[in-house]
Design brief:
5-stranded mixed beta sheet; 14 helices; 3-stranded antiparallel beta sheet; 10 strands; D-Maltodextrin-Binding Protein, domain 2; alpha/beta
């Protein structure tokens, strides 16, 4: 484990302990306790949830919300399955995959209309399109290769290969031929800080376009629909505010995750806002399009990621979106 990663893990554990202490103090408040398990350490990509917490939107709905930071060793699905968390951050392709594996999750609203996942290459790289990946190694994070399988099949790539990625851009900076998986809201900041010109290619441009979602278990949804409605309503209210007034929320996030500096947070926030990842084309905050879910489901079937067919409409619900608006 590298020193920066060790520091983040220690930070994450500290946050968990701090939030657990807050939970004990608030247990007698009369609010309904709810836990959200995020997909990474506190960052602007979680801004709407922290906005709702900071501005009291969850409390207005009668909820006592704890936000647990994720990381490379946190299994959000397991947390939700065993009831250690009621909600998790994820993606529509992941939700479909785990349902196919027998884990009964359901997405209740979109956090992002489009996924900022991309491939990053050096400015002078001969790779100008996904078809040009032929013959090149691509650094990919373990457990996140379904989109890569899609690219291989769509562009009939025969000699492209995966190599394990690290949680930094150090290898990229040292090797002009290096290609790696990124979020366009994150890694480009560090590379540009180092003065290295780059190009990025969003995976969604290839036709693999999952939502980023908030999800819960089927059982929790069935037993506590009112709580789910309140959580979605407050969360989307927070996302709406965060896109307009991020500064105080970013300051709060920085206290939870000192590894992020102001410039980095501004970069991430501006990428989220300016490239319309949260709202999509127009004001689609939180919305799902059933056709996109069906298309993603079919892509996963074609890739044989889903072995046993099921109704993709069971992977999401539309019932809370109008309420949230």
């Amino acid at each position: 484990m590298t020193n920066p990663l060790r520091a983040m893990v220690v930070c994450s554990l500290g946050i968990c302990l701090m939030l657990a202490g807050c939970r004990k103090q608030q247990a007698a408040s009369g609010l309904t306790p709810v836990t959200l398990q995020t997909d990474w350490y506190p960052q602007p990509e979680h801004g709407g949830f922290y906005d709702a917490l900071l501005r009291g939107y969850y409390k207005d709905e009668g909820l006592d919300v704890t936000i647990l930071p994720g990381g490379p060793y946190v299994n959000s699905d397991q947390q939700v399955s065993v009831g250690a968390a009621q909600f998790e951050m994820g993606s529509s392709d992941h939700v479909l995959q785990v349902i196919g594996n027998g884990v009964p999750l359901v997405a209740v609203a979109a956090t992002m209309q489009h996924d900022p996942q991309a491939i990053m290459v050096h400015q002078d790289s001969p790779v100008h399109g996904f078809q040009d990946l032929e013959g090149h190694p691509v650094a990919i994070r373990l457990g996140s290769s379904t989109w890569f399988d899609f690219l291989v099949k769509r562009y009939q790539l025969k000699t492209v290969r995966e190599i394990p990625a690290t949680y930094s851009v150090a290898n990229f900076l040292q090797d002009p031929g290096y290609i790696q998986q990124i979020f366009v809201t994150s890694e480009p900041f560090f590379v540009r800080q180092a003065g290295v010109p780059i190009r990025t290619m969003l995976i969604s441009e290839a036709g693999y376009d999952p939502y980023r979602v908030m999800a819960t278990s089927q059982s929790f949804l069935q037993q506590h629909p009112d709580t789910v409605a309140k959580f979605v309503r407050a969360s989307l209210r927070g996302w709406h505010d965060y896109l307009v007034h991020p500064d105080d929320v970013n300051a709060a996030i920085a206290k939870l995750n000192p590894a992020m500096n102001v410039a980095q947070m501004n970069f991430s926030y501006e990428a989220l806002r300016d490239q319309h990842f949260i709202t999509g084309e127009g004001d689609n905050l939180g919305h799902f399009d059933p056709a996109r879910w069906s298309s993603m489901y079919q892509q996963l079937l074609d890739l044989k990621v889903i072995q046993k067919p099921f109704d993709p409409a069971t992977a999401y619900t539309l019932q809370f979106i109008p309420t949230a608006h």
